Every structure is written in C-alpha cells, then in structure tokens.
Amino acid sequence: MTATQQETSIVIKRVFASPVEKVFKAWIDPAQMAKWYSSNARWYMPISEVNPVVGGVYRNTMRHSDGDEITLDGRILEIEENKRLKFTWVPSEGPGAGSETVVTLDFKSIDGGTEFTLTHDRLPTQEFSEGAQSGWKGCLEMLEAFLN
Predict the structure, then answer these.
(1) Residue 5's pLDDT is what?
(2) Which among 9, 88, 101, 123 could disulfide-bond with 129, CB atoms 3.0 to 4.6 Å apart, if both were Cys?
(3) Low-confidence residues of the chain, pLDDT below 70?
(4) Residues 79, 82, 87, 91: is their CA dihedral positive or negative?
C-alpha cells in the first residue's frame, strides 16, 4: 500500500427471522453455503470448502451464468459458535485481487431471530469498498431467502 491509499471499512447490519444457530451454521457448512453464497441468482457456487476452526482455511469458487468465475480464499481467524466468525477474505479477480481483507460476522440471538452484523475491514480502495458493499448486500438477500 502506498502512502496515498487509505483503507476503508464497511458495516452492514441485518435482522434475520431465523434462530442464531441456523444463521451461524449457514456460514460454516459448505453444503449450505453452496446454496446461497453469491451476490445474486446468476451466480452459483460449484466449490465450497470450509474447515471451521481457528487457522482453518476455506475456498469458495463462484461461477456466473455467463461463465465468469471468481475464487475467494482465506483462513479462519476467530470462531465462537453462534456468536462470531472472523476470517480473511482474498479475491482472485476484480479490483482488489490478491488483497487480504478481514471479515467479521457477529451473531446475536434476539426475540424472533438473529441480529447480524457484518464488518469488512482493510478494503484497499474505494472501488473495492463499493463493490464489496454491493456484493455483501446481495449475498445477505440470498441468505435471507435461503433461511426462509
């Protein structure tokens, strides 16, 4: 990073009408992730590998209906069942390709569901930040549809 670049962060909060255990498991079970983890229905995930332990690695490959493909790799930094999941996020393509960013997911059980907060830190550029914000919002909509 040069002195003229500034890292940014995004925070997205959401309430899901599903128990915290169900929401948390959707993030660490590769079979479940393959059904929802994308920014919209034109993407699907033929490869999802997750080792949900501190230091464990994951790899998610998403494929677009037009044939484009993107792989996200990373490692688990912190895992507290039904409360927190923190991991590095390294895209293979796009404006931030190869940049190691950090995603923190906080889960809180509330009456009628789960209060969820996603924080994505160390975003290298504004363009990357805007793309991540849009992608995460779509991804969380896909998660909500999957949970219901």
Answers:
(1) 44
(2) 123
(3) 1-7, 94-95
(4) positive
Please state, in angstroms and rounded to a whole number, the distance separating the CA atoms of residues 18 and 21.
8
**SS3 state of residue 72:** strand
Q: Which two structure tokens, joined as six digits, stand for 127?
A: 């363009």
CA 145/CA 18 separation, integer angstroms: 11
pLDDT tens for 76-119 read: 999 999 999 999 998 877 667 778 999 999 999 999 999 999 99
Pairing of strands 43-50, 8-16: unpaired
Specify the 3-state DSSP secondary structure of 113.
strand
- What distance in Å separates the CA atoms of residue 31 and residue 37, rounded to the nearest whole number? 10
Q: What is the pLDDT of residue 81?
A: 97
Q: How far apart are CA 61 and CA 72, in angstroms?
A: 6
- Nearest CA to 99 out of 143, 129, 79 is that of 129
